[in-house]
Design brief:
- The structure is a single chain.
- This protein has 13 helices and 11 strands.
- It is an alpha+beta fold.
- Strands 6-7-5-10-11 form a 5-stranded mixed β-sheet, with helices on both faces. The protein has a 4-stranded antiparallel β-sheet with strand order 1-4-3-2, with helices on both faces.
- Helix 5 packs antiparallel against helix 6.
- The longest helix has 81 residues.
- It is rod-shaped, with a radius of gyration of 55 Å.
- It starts with a helix and ends with a strand.
- 26% of the residues are buried.
Length: 447
């Protein structure tokens, strides 16, 4: 039933009761005391319709009618009938009072229930809010745990990488997983713009949450596609060598926590590059002589084995030159060990600058040197030794105000004509060096 029909019905029914009761009174006035109570149904109807104003208006009219009508009616003029009508009016008021009290109690119960419902609703809202917060927190924790797990694996992987390019590639790969909807760039070099210059000058990361409200730079300073940005310096032994840049076209996309993540990844990669550099230096120290810069005896032995395998495979000989500075002990005794070190470094420069890139020069021990000439026969090796002997002899030194010079003796051996294993090749060249020493020094012996 629609609202219009309900309103019509609510008006028609009480009107019908009033009309019917009034007609009965006109027709059967002598039965007034029996018919009058029928008016109470109108009152009851409005009471159940919760129309309080209409209910009491009807009650007032009925009361007035009940008190006044008997005085003007010839049919109910006796006292007992009047008392009965008055009693009916009193009962009607008593009934009205009971209904009003019941309504008040019902309204109070309804309000109490509504308060309970509202309180329960608020509790449900709070519980839903707590559950939602817990879900978000759980999702955030799972994301962080997953990221830290990936980060832990990436750290182990980065630590095993052998080049700066590999470290850079792994760093970008890790960042792209976390900042999948952002633009990421890592460059080695000088500052490319005002933002990187700001980072370089302050040696601090730059964090721009929203380019339109940033106080460090005017909004027009930002390219149109940059609304949020992070720039982190890349360090190498306390020096900035480049920049890691993360940008987004969404304002406030990047948060402070993500700046910390970017700084953490940058620091890990910086430490990895530093470790790689230190490892390379340690390796160099292991195979390079710290005084002369030539390879060490250990590196020489490894290279000899490689050359023998290569020569055996290609059937192309190689030659070994052993060299020794003549009367070297005299420089240490007369001019001091510092002068001796200068002589060793000068001789090493002669050897390293005379040979090809494919050849190999090592400090064999003390003042003795070894030079491997790859894919070179004895004839070429003798020519090279003679050239180095002349260059070394032309060097001049001044120690304690006195000018002096050096001479160098050489012994040459060829693989495989003089020997077929590494130790024998070295022995053959060393014996010829000893022979050069015994023959007067400052010469090349190859037989």
């Amino acid at each position: 039933m629609d609202a219009k029909r309900v309103r019509v019905f609510n008006f028609t029914l009480p009107a019908f009761i009033l009309l019917a009761t009034s007609i009965l009174l006109l027709e059967f006035e002598r039965f007034f005391i029996y018919i009058f109570p029928l008016y109470s149904f109108v009152f009851i109807w409005y009471a159940f319709q919760k129309e309080k104003e209409t209910q009491f208006l009807v009650l007032f009219v009925l009361s007035a009618f009940g008190f006044i009508y008997p005085k003007f009616s010839s049919e109910i003029g006796d006292i007992s009938s009047s008392v009965t009508v008055y009693a009916e009016v009193v009962v009607l008021w008593f009934y009205a009072s009971m209904l009003s009290s019941a309504n008040r109690k019902r309204q109070s119960n309804i309000k109490e229930k509504m308060r309970e419902i509202n309180a329960n609703y608020e509790n449900i809202k709070n519980i839903k809010s707590e559950v939602e917060r817990y879900g978000n927190h759980r999702e955030s924790l799972l994301k962080r745990i997953g990221f830290h797990s990936e980060l832990s694996g990436a750290i182990r992987k980065i630590a095993s990488l052998k080049s700066v390019d590999e470290i850079k590639s792994q760093m970008l790969s890790l960042l792209e997983k976390y900042f999948s909807d952002c633009r990421i760039k890592a460059e080695i070099g000088h500052p490319a713009d005002a933002f990187e210059r700001w980072v370089f000058d302050r040696k601090s990361s730059l964090f721009v949450r929203d380019a339109s409200s940033d106080k460090k730079f005017a909004s027009r300073s930002f390219p149109g596609e940059i609304k949020s940005m992070i720039i982190v310096p890349l360090y190498f032994f306390n020096s900035i060598i480049g920049f890691l840049r993360i940008t987004s076209d969404v304002p406030e996309r990047l948060k402070y926590g993500e700046l910390q993540i970017a700084e953490l990844i940058s620091s890990i990669c910086s430490v990895s590059m530093e470790n790689l550099s230190l490892f390379e230096k340690v390796e160099q120290l292991a195979i390079k002589d710290s005084l002369t810069g030539l390879f060490t005896h250990r590196a020489f032995e490894d290279r000899m084995e490689e050359e023998i395998l290569r020569a055996a495979r290609t059937k192309i000989p190689f030659s070994l030159i052993m060299a020794d500075i003549d009367h070297f002990k005299r420089y240490n005794d007369v001019y001091g060990h510092q002068a001796g070190d200068e002589v060793l470094k000068a001789a090493a420069r002669v050897f390293s600058s005379s040979i090809r890139d494919v050849d190999f020069a090592a400090r064999y021990g003390g003042e003795e040197f070894a030079i491997i000439l790859t894919a070179a026969g004895k004839k070429d090796a003798v020519s090279m030794a003679e050239y180095m002997r002349k260059v070394a002899g032309s060097l001049r030194f001044e120690f304690g105000g006195k000018e002096t010079s050096i001479t160098v003796s050489f012994g040459v051996a060829e693989f495989p004509s003089d020997a077929t294993i590494s130790s024998q090749v070295v022995r053959a060249a060393d014996e010829r060096l000893y022979k050069a020493k015994k023959s007067g020094r400052n010469r090349v012996v190859y037989e």
